Amino acid sequence: MKDEWKRMDFATRAVHAGERMPRPDYVPVVTPVYPSVGYLYDDMDDLDAIFGGTREGYVYTRYGNPTVTAFEHAVAAMEEAESAVAFGSGMAAIHATLLGLGLKAGSASVVARDVYGATYALFGKLLTSQGVDVRFVDISDLAEVESACAQVRPTVLFVETVSNPLLKVADIPALARIAHAYGAALVVDNTFATPYLCRPLTLGADVVVHSATKYIGGHGDALGGVVLASEERREAIQEVLKITGGNLGPQEAWLLMRGLKTLPLRMGKHCANALQVANGLARMGGITRVIYPGRHDHPQHSLATRLFGGQGYGGMVAFELLKAGQSKVFRFFEALRLCLPATTLGDVYSLVLYPTHSSHRTLTAEDRERVGIGDGLVRMSVGIEAAEDILADLRQALAAASSE
What we know:
Elements: H1 2-6, H2 10-16, H3 44-52, H4 66-79, E1 83-87, H5 90-100, E2 108-112, H6 117-129, E3 133-137, H7 142-152, E4 156-160, H8 172-181, E5 185-189, H9 194-197, E6 207-211, E7 225-229, H10 231-244, H11 250-260, H12 263-282, E8 287-291, H13 301-308, E9 316-321, H14 326-335, E10 340-341, E11 351-353, H15 365-371, E12 377-381, H16 387-402
Parallel strand pairs: 2-3, 2-4, 4-5, 5-6, 10-11
Antiparallel strand pairs: 1-7, 6-7, 8-9, 9-12, 11-12
């Protein structure tokens, strides 16, 4: 081809030179980023076979991408899943999962009441408006869960391993038995626990979802979601992705895969720090309640110990400020110097969030009260800084907010 370039116009050379080099005889240590939208084959029958699903390969990035596939395989290995499919966000992953499992007008779902605010809105507003019967339940009350399942025979029972933001722990084996007894698929959002603490598919769950933006990525620089399931269920969810187009980009997939490599190291530190911070907060004046599954006063402490196998109890802590409304919580946030008031979690940084005005803002005041989210509740994602420095920052901010 080198001599052919000489016979071609400068504009043609600018477009094509350097592309589609001969296939290398080496393998890179780190998976490359493949930004290409389209893919070429010498034999058009190969392209046709890939479109037809009779052989593996890539034709168009909405149908698949090599960097994204590498990320999917990596997460599947961590979750002990048959297969995975990645999405551009955690919410896209949840929505496509529900559609892929057959949730539609006339069908029903049973959902943990204190799920992430956007998830609550997805079920309580969007899906309800489309004719889905949605029943919210206290996921820690197995009798209530079974009663709801018996009444509506749901297509899906949806829970979070550790709920957002009240940190209730789901008894996944028991919930799987209930779901399957009534013909439902158990879908578990494992974002807070991560596969470091819990692998729900091994406990009877049918589908696991993650906001990969959080602990899987771990650095606050990439948005993504991922679904783990059997190959049969993955294919149905993948078809929804092809149609709706909520794809994960290759650059984001590369960043998330890079973050996944240090998940065990980060989660160990997150868990250790969170326990120290939770215990430290419980000793501070001006705090009325501390919620952390690693504390013996947590209602599901024994369950968390059993599910998580001694690995820890997660990096999330919730606490309530004494006699606090929005203005006092805001003063507390504004006084922080190390901890960051940002609307995300799972980063290496310590992050605080006010559910009432951010993650659960779409809920009405009545809905928040029903769930148990008070006006003084703070959700904290404990980072990997020194725990003593985190506590010192919380202490000084609490004093500043209480002095006004």
